[in-house]
Design goal:
The protein is an alpha+beta fold. Helix content is 46%, strand content 18%.
């Protein structure tokens, strides 16, 4: 918490939120955040567990779908089917080292058109960020652990999900979608298809 406060003090404007992935209710950080919230009168708000960075992979695709809420299942069903029938949507699971550069270029393009791109906080926001993700993806592709998903519609990438797979777990690093395709749940679809592929 001291580190969070010191970082927050260095920026010109106070942060409206701090996102902490994989926060566990029984953990020390969770308890410290709750205590600080009670002290300041500003209790922390927590997002949905299913958007966490660590996705446990059950034994089957149906079991994975069974863990989702109704809205996510509808997006992966009806909205995805509409996207396929009306806009020729297709999904590519990129794992081979030779395909990493091509896949990342599409992901970078999508990231620039996402809300993160507008805030200059996407994976494509700087040359150093792009280079970092290129290196990470190539290392993990060589180990057969890369899970880079590209969802395309009308021949162009509209969302991506970047994950790293390890046996029963998929670590979700980054994802984004072109905001022009928000109504179809493009980001949810690319994450869902990543889970199916994993």
């Amino acid at each position: 918490l001291a580190q969070i406060d010191s970082i927050r003090a260095t920026v010109e404007q106070p942060w409206s939120f701090v996102m902490v992935n994989n926060l566990r209710p029984e953990g020390a950080l969770y308890r410290a955040l709750m205590a600080k919230g009670e002290k300041t009168g500003r209790p922390p708000r927590f997002g949905a567990v299913e958007h966490g960075v660590e996705i446990e992979l059950p034994g089957s695709w149906e079991a994975a779908r069974g863990q989702w809420n109704e809205n996510r299942r509808r997006t992966m069903g009806k909205r995805y089917e509409r996207l396929r029938s009306e806009h020729g949507a297709e999904f590519e699971d990129i794992r081979a080292p030779a395909d990493v550069d091509r896949g990342l270029e599409e992901a970078f393009h999508v990231a620039e058109k996402s809300w993160q791109g507008r805030n200059n906080s996407s994976i494509a926001s700087s040359s150093s960020s792009r280079e970092f993700y290129r290196r990470v993806c190539k290392v993990f592709a060589e180990r057969d652990r890369l899970n880079l998903a590209i969802l395309r519609a009308e021949g162009k990438a509209i969302s991506y999900h970047l994950g790293l797979a390890d046996r029963e777990t998929l670590y979700s690093l980054k994802w984004g979608y072109d905001t022009d395709w928000k109504a179809f749940g493009a980001g949810v679809i690319s994450i869902g298809e990543s889970i199916r592929a994993a």
